[in-house]
Design a protein that fits this description.
The complex is a heterodimer of chains A (362) and B (375).
Chain A: H1 3-21, H2 40-54, H3 57-60, E1 66-70, E2 73-82, E3 88-89, E4 92-93, H4 94-107, E5 112-123, H5 128-145, E6 148-157, E7 165-174, E8 191-194, H6 200-208, H7 226-236, E9 240-245, H8 250-262, E10 265-269, H9 277-286, E11 299-303, H10 308-316, E12 325-331, E13 338-341, E14 347-349
Helix pairs in contact in A: 4-5, 4-7, 7-10
Chain B: H1 10-23, E1 30-36, H2 37-46, E2 56-63, H3 71-81, E3 86-90, H4 104-109, E4 113-116, H5 120-129, E5 134-139, H6 146-159, E6 164-168, H7 173-182, E7 190-194, H8 195-201, H9 207-213, E8 217-220, H10 224-239, E9 245-247, H11 259-268, E10 269-271, E11 274-277, E12 281-284, E13 288-290, H12 299-302, H13 318-322, H14 346-349, H15 354-361, H16 366-373
Parallel strand pairs in B: 1-2, 1-7, 3-4, 3-5, 5-6, 7-8, 8-9
Antiparallel strand pairs in B: 10-13, 11-12
Helix pairs in contact in B: 1-10, 6-11
Classes of the chains: A alpha+beta (362), B alpha/beta (375).
Chain lengths: 362, 375
């Protein structure tokens, strides 16, 4: 390439960088399904609409929960909405999902979850027996997680206005440690762990819809993670930099958020990422990558490399972390990329998706 | 996983990579086009280029079926989908492809009933379950998916289903390869032939590429070792100064294709006089439509389709990028009018397209990526 050409290429690259640096602009006139998928479209929506409207320093951190000081205590506070279809699936239902999801968002701040609220939006005609089953499963999940559902609300909408039952939960917990945890805390050299095999919840729900004609004995991984988090913090203390549950968008999206917030790069070892054969098989057939499939009881842990062994030991000793694995490490450059060393011996860039991973035709 | 892991063995890959390096002549570069989007995906997913010498370049060809559909056809389909009596059914990866006006995802948000299916037979099932609605299948793809559309039409006809139709956008691979070969400025040394298409059409249709254009073509499978081995076969032909059609994907591709699938195709479909390709313009005899006998299943005839034509902007140089003549950044609209959010040409539509990949990651050289992943 001539010097002139090289200069022109650099100009084009600078122009792209300037465009990227500008605040997110929402071009869509309507909400599409992509805006709910946790990828780039969600990110743009949150930044362009909600951050603009509510701007404050706590929200701007864009963590899974807010940590606020109140009366001398540090409280973690979060809310989440649940619209899963089908409502009942192998290994769980919308009820335990709604408890565990909110408990986990609190746990990712290292908080001890205390109280939940529950809001039910019910569709006219919804069977009371199903609602009773959902409530029972919420109660059971709450007991396991050591929280109580202490307040709530019920609304009914006309037939066709909701998919049977939508559920929102909010939760508060108390932060009893003084460690700083957050997506912006990853440092070059840190180790990246995952607390168990990935992609089971998303795959289970996809198969439970029955459209694919694939049968498997997979179950959702939905589980409360406050226990393994307490074990981790007990073993590694401030060596733990960041915790994120890998829900929408999967492990790939979480790692990209961490890389972006910390200004670092993450290098993954594909072969080290635990994925059950059934998830791998379904993902192969559909042409989607397990790294992007949602989990509801798995977390990504970034920890000081010197404490990585201790972190793994602590996770392995807990029933919800028995299959935890070291899957990669943090490096300085080229930030903010997530790179993957493939089992085939190559490398690829693990980008954030725009919307849901869509099955490929070819 | 059986039948998968054995084709992804890193040790075998390293051995093949060494043989590939040994076959490369010093002081020359090699440019091969992988015709099929599925190959592009495999190359990207497994990082195959890391096993190739820097003098071997892989150029992504026109074989991504969702990327080559011109914007006007998507606008036409959206027009049909927005009718209140219609259920539009489509493969998943069509959902986000932008038309001149909107994508299916946008149309769905605007109230259209658009449903994702995994096979045209799923669309038929939806038609049976909704006798008071008109169910349209957005048929896309090369000869790989066209036979299943044909079989579905035959089945609908056998059942006498009168609320099912097909919006046919099937294209054929040979005219697209011809268009690329006929371009005076292409600099390709050979082709990785499309494996899935070849399960249907076989290997014979490619023989002109070797015979008339003197370029080797190797029909390749979709696992990473398939691709590496195919590159090896191409390089060996070049080293031996030969140009032939070879079949690396023999475990799936019969030399003469699949006569049953071809039979169903020719019963139901015929070539259109011409069809527009995003980025490549109009190509004669490059697409399929339903024959007159099956007009009752042809959405183009059942619905008033506006026949919207959105010209690719003149400045769009997708064709040149596809042919490997221009680098993405050299295109006049790259990064200004054409971005991943507002793609104009095929290379920007698919996330694996050359332009989208360059837009997102062009600032990171492969050397930097390799350096970071070395431990």
């Amino acid at each position: 390439m001539t010097a002139d050409q090289e200069q022109r290429e650099q100009e084009v690259l600078r122009r792209i960088e300037r465009t990227r640096g500008r605040p997110a602009r929402l071009r869509d006139e309507r909400i599409t399904m992509a805006h709910g998928a946790g990828g780039k479209a969600t990110q743009t929506l949150v930044e362009a609409v909600f951050l603009t409207a509510f701007h404050n320093p706590v929200l701007a951190r864009l963590e899974d929960q807010a940590v606020c000081e109140a009366g001398g205590a540090r409280l973690a506070f979060t809310t989440d909405a649940y619209v899963v279809s089908p409502l009942f699936f192998p290994g769980g239902d919308i009820g335990d999902l709604a408890v565990n999801g909110t408990v986990n968002d609190l746990a990712m701040a290292g908080a001890r979850p205390l109280h939940l609220s529950a809001g039910f939006i019910l569709e006219e005609g919804f069977p009371v027996a199903d609602l009773t089953r959902i409530a029972a499963s919420m109660a059971k999940a709450a007991a396991v997680a050591g929280v109580q559902v202490v307040t709530g609300d019920t609304k009914v909408v006309e037939r066709g206005k909701a998919d049977g039952c939508y559920l929102t939960t909010a939760g508060v917990g108390v932060v009893e440690h003084r460690f700083e945890l957050g997506a912006a805390r990853a440092r070059p050299g840190d180790a990246v762990l995952v607390s168990g095999p990935i992609g089971e919840h998303g795959t289970t729900v996809l198969l439970a819809r029955g459209e694919l004609g694939i049968e498997s004995d997979l179950e959702s991984d939905t589980a409360p993670l406050a226990g393994p988090v307490a074990a981790l913090l007990g073993a590694c203390g401030e060596g733990v930099r960041c915790l994120r549950d890998a829900t929408r968008g999967g492990v790939a999206t979480v790692l990209n958020e961490i890389a972006r917030a910390s200004g670092v790069a993450v290098v993954l070892d594909e072969g080290a990422v635990p994925v059950r054969a059934q998830v791998r098989g379904a993902a192969e057939i559909l042409g989607i990558d397990p790294l992007y499939i949602a989990c509801e009881g798995r977390m990504v842990v970034v920890v000081d490399a010197a404490r990585a062994e201790a972190a793994l030991d602590a996770l392995h000793a807990h029933p919800l972390g028995r299959e935890a694995a070291l899957i990669g490490h943090v490096v300085a450059d080229p930030a903010p990329l997530v790179l993957c060393r493939t089992e085939f011996g190559g490398t690829r860039i693990v980008d954030v998706l725009v919307g849901d991973p869509l099955p490929r035709i070819c | 996983m059986r039948y998968v892991d054995e084709y992804r063995d890193a040790g075998k890959a390293r051995a093949l990579a060494a043989e590939i390096a040994a076959l490369c002549e010093p002081d020359r570069t090699y440019t091969f086009m992988e015709v099929c989007g599925g190959h592009t995906h495999t190359i990207y997913k497994h990082g195959i280029e890391d096993h190739l010498p820097d003098t071997v370049h892989l150029v992504h060809g026109p074989g991504c079926p969702v990327c080559v559909i011109p914007m006007g056809r998507i606008d036409d389909a959206v027009h049909i989908a927005l009718r209140p009596d219609v259920i539009m059914t489509t493969f998943g990866d069509m959902m986000r492809v932008p038309g001149g006006d909107a994508s299916f995802l946008d149309a769905k948000a605007a109230g259209a009933d658009i449903r994702m299916v995994y096979s045209p037979l799923d669309a038929l099932r939806i038609a049976r379950a909704n006798p008071d609605r008109r169910v349209v299948f957005m048929a896309i793809g090369f000869e790989t998916t066209a036979p299943s559309t044909a079989v579905t039409v035959l089945r609908a006809a056998a059942e006498g289903l009168d609320n099912f139709s097909v919006f046919c956008n099937h294209v054929t691979i040979i005219p697209a390869i011809k268009a690329i070969l006929d371009s005076p400025d292409q600099r390709l040394d050979g082709f990785l032939g499309p494996g899935h298409v070849s399960t249907v059409i076989g290997c014979r249709p490619y023989e002109f590429i070797a015979a008339l254009h003197g370029k080797p073509l190797v029909v390749a499978g979709f696992e990473p070792l398939d691709i590496l081995q195919s590159v090896h076969l191409l390089l060996r032909q070049l080293a031996e100064r030969r140009a032939a059609v070879e079949n690396q994907y023999g475990r799936v591709v019969p030399w003469d294709g699949n006569p049953k699938a071809l039979g169903a195709l020719s019963r139901v479909m015929e070539l259109r006089p011409h069809f527009e390709w995003r980025g490549l313009g109009f190509i004669s005899h490059s697409a399929l439509r339903l024959k007159d006998e099956y007009a009752a299943y042809d959405a183009e005839r059942l619905f008033e389709v506006p026949g919207i034509r959105v010209a690719d902007p003149k400045a769009c140089q997708c064709g040149e990028v596809l042919k490997g003549v221009l680098k993405p950044w050299q295109c006049k609209v790259f990064g200004t009018a054409c971005t991943p959010e507002t793609p104009i040409g095929t290379c920007m539509v698919s996330s694996e397209g050359a332009c989208a990949a360059y837009y997102n990651f062009g600032r990171f050289t492969r050397a930097a990526v390799r350096e970071a992943t070395r431990s």
